[in-house]
Amino acid sequence: MGNALVNMYGKCGSLTDARSLFDKMPHHNVVSWNSMISVYAQNGNGKAALELFPLMGLEGVKPDNITFIGILSACSHTGLLDDGCYQFISMSRDHLITPRLDHYVCMIDLLGRAGQFNEAEGLINSIPFEPHPVLWINLLGTCRIHGDVERGAQAAEHAFELDPNNTAVFVLLSNIYAAAGNWDDAAKVRKTIINRGVKKKPGRSCIEIKNRVHEFFVGDTSHPQKENIYAELGRLSRQMEAAGYMPDTKAALSDAEEVNKEVMLCYHSEKLAIAFGLINTFPGTSLRIIKNLRVCSDCHTSIKFISHVVGRKIIVRDASRFHHFEEGICSCEDYW
């Protein structure tokens, strides 16, 4: 029961509650340690995960392969390159645990996020089992972060060879071309997506208010409070601009005029959910948002400004991790 509750608090972004409960547990087995390490990993607190890890040994608990997935994931989300590489080597050398696919995925993510693409490709090519498309897809995702179009296209090609019908590859490749302003290639990929009947997953953000979940899509006008929501967004935009916010129009991924891109960015689903939360909760109340996709760079910057101008803590769980925004700062330190 204790382990399940630690996981529950972690999935709600409640780090303090998760750790408090963990510390009060009379006995910790390997599942307990893995749960707490995983909570730190999901919430981007890699240093805390690494500090917790040695305490397992002091209690006589041996780590397993799940432990190292949590540790490597924590290092990846926090940019702890040297620590992650050391732990990857240590798991087989010191703990006699053979790396599995999930461990390699974490390492490709770690190396790719750090811009170590040659090392990431070398690791993929050295894997002692049949290559899996998820490795190249993961590398493609990190190429998107760094804007490396050429290497991203190569990673997509490798992924297509292993899985020609993987929809994630089409979407990521289209996005990387669009972010670089390569509209012709982006259009070609999108045409292929349409011809193959691939449906791109729309961005969706949810927030729970008074035991009811409210769901928003980009540019959503279906909510009964739409007028108040858009009015709140307008007010927030003026406050943010006064505080120094500048829209990151590259995140719009559209070949449109700059002004139109700014409008498009303003109505992303997480911003609508936050505006709704602000007008339906008391001042000072923390907001929790869940998004099905990775939060874009403009929304990330926007939410930092919003947390500052309204004096609220805003917790956003996107497709890969938690972001804790407070007083204009995000817990990820802009590394995600």
Question: Describe it for me?
Answer:
Helix 3 (30-42) packs parallel to helix 5 and helix 5 (65-78) packs parallel to helix 7 (101-113). This protein has helices at residues 2-11, 15-24, 30-42, 46-58, 65-78, 81-93, 101-113, 117-126, 133-146, 149-162, 167-179, 183-195, 226-242, 258-266, 269-279, 297-310; strands at residues 204-209, 212-217, 287-291, 314-317, 322-326, 329-330. Mean pLDDT is 91; it is low at 254-260. It is of the alpha+beta class. The radius of gyration is 21 Å and the shape is globular. The chain contains 16 helices and six strands. It is 60% helix and 8% strand. The two termini are 32 Å apart. The longest helix is centred in the last third of the chain and has 17 residues, at 226-242. It has a six-stranded mixed beta sheet, covered by helices on one side.
Produce the secondary structure layout.
Blueprint lengths: L1 H10 L3 H10 L5 H13 L3 H13 L6 H14 L2 H13 L7 H13 L3 H10 L6 H14 L2 H14 L4 H13 L3 H13 L8 E6 L2 E6 L8 H17 L15 H9 L2 H11 L7 E5 L5 H14 L3 E4 L4 E5 L2 E2 L6
Parallel strand pairs: 3-4
Antiparallel strand pairs: 1-2, 1-3, 4-5, 5-6
Helix pairs in contact: 1-2, 1-3, 2-3, 3-4, 3-5, 4-5, 5-6, 5-7, 6-7, 7-8, 7-9, 8-9, 9-10, 9-11, 10-11, 11-12, 13-15
